Amino acid sequence: MLLKNTNKSKIKETRNYLRENCKSIEEVLKQLKNPQNSKLSQLTKEMNEINNLYKTWRHSNKIKSRRSKTLAEPVPKPEPKSSKLSEDSESSSSDENADWTGMDREYTELKDLVSEYQDTISNLQTHIFELNEQLETYSFKVEKKASQLSQMEKNNEELRQVIQEMNSTLAEKDQLLTETKTESEQLEATLQETKKNYSELDEEYQKLKCEYTKLQLELEEVKNNSKPKFEIDTQNTSEIYFSPLSTPKMNFLVVEDSPKPTTSEKYSISNEFYFKRSIRYKQAILYSDDTIEIGTRIQTSTQKAVMDMYIGNKSSQNLSSLETHIEHSPENLSITIDKNTGPEIIPPGSKALRKFLIREDDLFEGEPILKLSFNDTELYLKLPVCTPLFFYQDEDSSTQKLESQCSKQKVFIPGSSKINLNFFRNFEKIKTGSGKILFAQSVFGLVVIYIEFHQLASILEVSSQNPQLTRIILNLILTVIH
């Protein structure tokens, strides 16, 4: 009887244990419902087998329980039977004990199997947790991408609107361009007609201009043949004045096209433009390009002068093998280079100095030419050393008498009236009528220049006691004008 009660309690514990484990297994199965999970499919299959085994086991337990109840009911005292009945009872009891032993063994096996599946479920739960974390990460990325996609769609919509506006604007501009093109064609036709009319008028104007110039020349020729331009008042020598009504006291040498010095024609001069500018001032730039810049400053004293020259390196490389040499010097002009000035190499952004000592022995024509070489480059430069450099202001012009020839350039190039005739600021100016008189003193005599400006042409006259000086000054002025 005690054995039966013990078996009942074990059966009850087994039922409760199996029920709890089955519930936990079902919960795990709900979490693992994923048709792509192969482990879940295998676990489901095994759980079905366990459930079938459990049902079979319950069914067998019910049958045995019924038998136990039947055996537990009070049985009337048996009447004495034969020995054969006693033997049958003992054999049935031994069969029942064998059945309970088999059930214990099955219970132990089931318990081990459930423990094994619990471990499997724990591993699966861990795997589920990892998958959930990955799912959250992917969800966050998907949300971020979705947000970016939404922003891109918004931007695309804005771009579509902008493109539509641009297309609308382009259509308006195309229409405006078409209208403008039509107007332009009309204006072009009008312009061509205007050009044609202008060409005809210009031809007439040129003809009239030529006739006017001829008349002016003829008029000037008549004036020159009848009246002098310059006159020194011997009674009152306090000023030099222009008097067309006075009687002539000097002869005129008419120079229609005064020749220029040809000494430097064999050299390829690099600074013609800068020379014409530098000859007007005592301090000026003599030459400049992307590599080098050369400037001069001149100080004079009667027949001597000192010229300081700087040579600046504007490039990013050294100027090496720098040499300066006087290639040509006019007759009666002495010019030397101070040997104590240098250096021969000029770094980028630096400069070198050269000093020139100049002396005028007598009147000279032309300009000295400097040869400057560096690296593989050679430059031939005209130096701004000319006769007016040695002029000085006349302090006592009243004692001077102008009784020599006067050379005259009747007409020079129109549009050149802005020429600075005040060379090195050594001339004095006297205005008279519509013209201007400039005069200066030198060791070779007094020089007087008269200039009169007109719209189409201008008159230039030079006079001096020394004909050579007159020719030099006239050629120099014409050089600067051209």
TrEMBL record:
Residues 76-87 have a biased composition (Basic and acidic residues). It comes from the Eukaryota. The keyword Transport applies. One of its GO terms (biological process) is vesicle-mediated transport. Keywords: Coiled coil, Protein transport, Transport. Transmembrane segments: none annotated. Residues 283-358 form the Clathrin adaptor alpha/beta/gamma-adaptin appendage Ig-like subdomain domain. This is Clathrin adaptor alpha/beta/gamma-adaptin appendage Ig-like subdomain domain-containing protein. Residues 62-103 are annotated as: Disordered. Residues 114-225 form a coiled coil. Gene3D superfamilies: 2.60.40.1230, Methyl-accepting chemotaxis protein.
